[in-house]
Amino acid sequence: MLFGKPATIPSKSEALPGRPEAMPLAEPHFLWGRDLRAPVPEGMEEAMFGMGCFWGVERIFWNTEGVWLSMVGYAGGHTPNPTYREVCTGMTGHNEVVRVIYDPAKVSYDDLLRVFWENHDPTQGMRQGNDRGTQYRSGIYTYTPAQAEAAEASRAAYAERLSQAGYGAITTEIIDAPPFYYAEDYHQQYLEKNPAGYCGIGGTGVSCPIGLKA
Questions:
Q1: Phi, psi of 51, rounded to the nearest 5 degrees
Q2: 53 is catalytic
Q3: Does pTM top 0.90 for this prediction?
Q4: Residues paired with residue 181 on neighbouring β-strands, in sequence order
Q5: For the purposes of burial, counting CB atoms within 10 Å of the CB of 115, is it exposed (0-12), middle (13-18) or buried (19 or more)?
Q6: Which of 53, 88, 199, 208 is catalytic?
Q7: What is the second-level CATH architecture of the domain 45-193?
């Protein structure tokens, strides 16, 4: 599935039709026992990121202090309620994403942005390492104008650091959060269920200047 897929996002007319039914989820969060469809509790906020195979990305975020709930799914394409097999064809337009609910009193959105930038290579376009295809693109999906402003500022700051280190231009998309479609149960917290499972996530080694003193 890694090769021969489209290198561009299909148009809405080209995308697979999908279905009206949401993905059934029978299992709670494997580590915390919380309902993955739980509403955002009062005082907490949500964020969504795409940075390669969502198995490894979710583990990075559930290990981030202040994250109350993590879940994997698909977003940024056209096909409603896609399956993993459909996303892997490249014909849904979706990205593999991680959505988190976090406590801003314990971890700020800027902190999450730093985790995002430092744990993948945002200059690779429609791939991440050996994982190739539109579902592995780098993306920040924002829920508020404040998040959008912070994301744009962080991209500009990190682009300068990457350029100094010899990397090319950042290809990360920053858009308003599109609909989030849950991935199948077996993908949720996959690397906790399968500790020896595949993880292709790796950063550039370039620190992100968010919150750092010059």
A1: -155, 35
A2: yes
A3: yes
A4: 74
A5: buried
A6: 53
A7: 2-Layer Sandwich (3.30)
CA distance 73 to 83: 10
Q: Decide if 117 contacts 165 (C-beta within 8 A).
A: no
Give pLDDT tens digits along the chain (214 positions): 444 578 899 999 999 999 999 999 999 999 999 999 999 999 999 999 999 999 999 999 999 999 999 999 999 999 999 999 999 999 999 999 999 999 999 999 999 999 999 999 999 999 999 999 999 999 999 999 999 999 999 999 999 999 999 999 999 999 999 999 999 999 999 999 999 999 989 999 999 997 543 3
Q: Residue 97 gets which letter from DSSP?
A: E
Terminal-to-terminal C-alpha distance of the chain: 44
Place of tokens 């930038």: 117
CA distances from 41 to 14, 101, 205 (A): 38, 9, 35
Three-state SS annotation for 17-35: CCCCCCCCCCCCCCCCCCC
48, amino acid identity: M
Q: By the 8 A CB rule, do 147 and 19 touch?
A: no
Convert the pLDDT of each residue in 71-80 to its tens digit: 999 999 999 9
Closest to 22 measured CA to CA, from 73, 71, 61: 73
Long-range contact set of residues 82-87: C-beta below 8 Å, sequence gap at least 24: 82/16, 82/18, 82/181, 83/23, 83/184, 84/183, 84/184, 84/187, 86/16, 86/18, 87/135
The span from the CA of 5 to the CA of 91, in Å, is 8
